[in-house]
Amino acid sequence: MLSVFRRPPDPAAASAWFAGSSGKALLDSEAACVRAALQQFPRQRSLWLGPAAARLVTAEAQAPSLCLHPVSAPELAGDLRCGLPLPLASECFAVVIVQHALEMTAEPELLLEECARVLIPGGWLWLLALNPLAPFRWRWTGHGLRGREPMTWRRRLRAVGLQPEPVSQGLGAGWRTGSEIHPHPGVGLRPAFLLRCEKRTLPLTPIRKPRAIGLQAGTPA
Length: 221
Hints:
Layout: H1 11-19, H2 21-38, E1 46-49, H3 55-58, E2 66-72, E3 75-78, E4 93-99, H4 108-118, E5 119-130, H5 150-159, E6 163-164, E7 169-171, E8 184-185, E9 192-198
Parallel strand pairs: 1-2, 1-4, 4-5
Antiparallel strand pairs: 2-3, 5-9, 6-9, 7-8, 7-9
């Protein structure tokens, strides 16, 4: 299977960038989306995957049930230390938040498959990703990160059985380093975007009920 990335990312370099001023400003811009995701199903379990620096941002909201972040090409750390596939039961989380974790791992396809596997039917995956067309991209260039367009992620989300929403939301400030807490319809030149998708249990195409056949009175059954 071909990788989403042309070269393996560097989780250590990516983590260091998110811990710096530009990375923290972007994480601050995404904090409201993370809180909204955690409040979607407040009484059910949630999984968050992302850079370690983002855990300080999510601490203001209801804490996820399980937090993991990439620390090396094959490993995740946080509430537990593991590799892929994840040592978690299938269909055990109502919400999965993937905050740049796919851009920090050498196996994004496998991680995405695992996120879909642990999601319950009717659950939602919130994907926060970098926009490769944003002017802000020069700030993360050379730090082990590479963005992909929403169309690419939609195709891969459908491939693992998820149904993405048709419109993405742009996040972050366009040119400056500061944070922007309000999302914008469409990606535009925003440095990051939110793409939500659902794990549906019903077929996307409604199945018609068979037409009832009328019988004349007195017709034997």
